[in-house]
Automatic annotation (TrEMBL):
Coiled-coil residues: none
InterPro entries per record: Glyas_Bleomycin-R_OHBP_Dase, Glyas_Fos-R_dOase_dom, VOC_core
Protein name: VOC family protein
VOC domain span: 4-122
PROSITE patterns xrefs: VOC (PS51819)
Secretion signal span: none
Length: 133
Protein backbone atom coordinates (compact mmCIF):
# COMPACT_ATOMS: atom_id res chain seq x y z
CA UNK A 1 0.00 0.00 0.00
CA UNK A 2 1.29 3.47 -0.76
CA UNK A 3 1.36 6.08 1.98
CA UNK A 4 -1.47 8.61 1.87
CA UNK A 5 -2.57 11.36 4.23
CA UNK A 6 -5.95 10.25 5.61
CA UNK A 7 -6.89 13.00 8.06
CA UNK A 8 -5.53 15.79 10.18
CA UNK A 9 -6.86 17.46 13.31
CA UNK A 10 -7.46 21.21 13.15
CA UNK A 11 -7.71 22.98 16.50
CA UNK A 12 -10.47 25.56 16.84
CA UNK A 13 -12.26 27.57 19.50
CA UNK A 14 -15.54 26.17 18.17
CA UNK A 15 -15.25 23.04 16.04
CA UNK A 16 -18.64 23.48 14.33
CA UNK A 17 -18.07 27.18 13.52
CA UNK A 18 -14.63 26.58 12.02
CA UNK A 19 -15.69 23.49 10.06
CA UNK A 20 -18.73 25.25 8.61
CA UNK A 21 -16.66 28.35 7.80
CA UNK A 22 -14.15 26.40 5.72
CA UNK A 23 -16.75 24.10 4.18
CA UNK A 24 -18.81 27.13 3.19
CA UNK A 25 -15.88 28.85 1.48
CA UNK A 26 -14.85 25.71 -0.39
CA UNK A 27 -18.37 24.63 -1.34
CA UNK A 28 -18.14 21.48 0.78
CA UNK A 29 -20.23 20.14 3.64
CA UNK A 30 -19.29 19.94 7.29
CA UNK A 31 -20.08 16.44 8.51
CA UNK A 32 -21.91 15.23 11.58
CA UNK A 33 -20.04 15.55 14.85
CA UNK A 34 -18.07 12.40 15.55
CA UNK A 35 -16.77 12.30 19.11
CA UNK A 36 -14.93 15.60 19.62
CA UNK A 37 -14.59 16.23 15.86
CA UNK A 38 -16.53 17.93 13.09
CA UNK A 39 -15.12 16.63 9.78
CA UNK A 40 -14.73 18.33 6.42
CA UNK A 41 -13.85 15.82 3.72
CA UNK A 42 -11.97 16.82 0.57
CA UNK A 43 -12.28 15.23 -2.87
CA UNK A 44 -8.98 13.36 -2.54
CA UNK A 45 -10.14 11.59 0.62
CA UNK A 46 -8.31 13.70 3.19
CA UNK A 47 -10.51 14.77 6.09
CA UNK A 48 -9.90 17.81 8.26
CA UNK A 49 -11.25 16.95 11.71
CA UNK A 50 -12.00 20.17 13.60
CA UNK A 51 -11.59 19.83 17.37
CA UNK A 52 -12.53 22.42 19.98
CA UNK A 53 -9.73 23.66 22.22
CA UNK A 54 -11.62 25.60 24.89
CA UNK A 55 -8.65 27.31 26.57
CA UNK A 56 -5.04 28.11 25.95
CA UNK A 57 -3.34 29.19 22.77
CA UNK A 58 -3.99 27.67 19.37
CA UNK A 59 -0.88 27.40 17.26
CA UNK A 60 -1.75 28.74 13.83
CA UNK A 61 -1.23 26.27 11.01
CA UNK A 62 -1.35 26.58 7.23
CA UNK A 63 -3.72 24.59 5.02
CA UNK A 64 -3.58 24.85 1.21
CA UNK A 65 -6.34 23.60 -1.08
CA UNK A 66 -5.90 22.89 -4.77
CA UNK A 67 -9.10 23.87 -6.60
CA UNK A 68 -10.24 24.12 -10.20
CA UNK A 69 -10.60 27.52 -11.87
CA UNK A 70 -14.39 27.33 -11.46
CA UNK A 71 -14.06 26.36 -7.78
CA UNK A 72 -11.63 29.25 -7.27
CA UNK A 73 -14.12 31.69 -8.78
CA UNK A 74 -16.93 30.38 -6.58
CA UNK A 75 -14.82 30.43 -3.41
CA UNK A 76 -13.43 33.87 -4.24
CA UNK A 77 -16.97 35.19 -4.67
CA UNK A 78 -18.03 33.69 -1.32
CA UNK A 79 -15.00 35.30 0.34
CA UNK A 80 -15.84 38.70 -1.15
CA UNK A 81 -19.55 38.39 -0.32
CA UNK A 82 -18.70 37.55 3.30
CA UNK A 83 -16.33 40.52 3.56
CA UNK A 84 -13.40 38.28 4.47
CA UNK A 85 -10.02 39.95 4.07
CA UNK A 86 -7.87 38.04 1.61
CA UNK A 87 -4.26 38.42 0.60
CA UNK A 88 -1.97 37.61 -2.33
CA UNK A 89 0.82 36.48 -0.02
CA UNK A 90 1.30 34.33 3.10
CA UNK A 91 2.79 37.23 5.09
CA UNK A 92 -0.52 39.04 4.52
CA UNK A 93 1.19 42.20 3.28
CA UNK A 94 -0.92 42.44 0.10
CA UNK A 95 -4.57 42.68 1.21
CA UNK A 96 -7.30 42.71 -1.41
CA UNK A 97 -5.08 41.09 -4.04
CA UNK A 98 -4.66 37.60 -5.47
CA UNK A 99 -1.49 36.05 -6.89
CA UNK A 100 -0.78 34.37 -10.22
CA UNK A 101 1.95 31.97 -9.12
CA UNK A 102 2.70 28.82 -11.12
CA UNK A 103 0.51 29.97 -14.00
CA UNK A 104 -2.65 29.98 -11.89
CA UNK A 105 -4.35 32.03 -9.20
CA UNK A 106 -4.16 31.91 -5.44
CA UNK A 107 -5.10 33.73 -2.28
CA UNK A 108 -4.79 33.48 1.49
CA UNK A 109 -7.32 34.16 4.27
CA UNK A 110 -7.72 33.39 7.97
CA UNK A 111 -10.25 31.05 9.51
CA UNK A 112 -12.02 31.83 12.84
CA UNK A 113 -9.20 30.19 14.86
CA UNK A 114 -6.46 32.15 13.04
CA UNK A 115 -5.24 29.37 10.76
CA UNK A 116 -3.89 30.47 7.39
CA UNK A 117 -6.00 29.05 4.58
CA UNK A 118 -4.85 29.11 0.97
CA UNK A 119 -6.63 28.27 -2.25
CA UNK A 120 -4.62 27.73 -5.44
CA UNK A 121 -5.49 26.66 -8.97
CA UNK A 122 -2.06 25.22 -9.85
CA UNK A 123 0.20 23.16 -7.61
CA UNK A 124 3.54 24.61 -6.64
CA UNK A 125 6.23 23.85 -9.21
CA UNK A 126 3.71 23.09 -11.96
CA UNK A 127 4.67 26.01 -14.17
CA UNK A 128 8.13 26.38 -15.72
CA UNK A 129 10.24 29.15 -14.24
CA UNK A 130 11.57 31.71 -16.66
CA UNK A 131 15.38 32.11 -16.28
CA UNK A 132 16.34 35.31 -14.49
CA UNK A 133 13.19 35.46 -12.36
Amino acid sequence: MSVELNHTIVHARNNRESAEFLAGILGLAAGAEWGPFVPVATANGVTLDFATVPAGPITAQHYAFLVSDDEFEAAFERIRQAGITYYADPRMALPGEINHHHGGRGLYFLDPAGHGMEIITRPYGSHPVTPGR
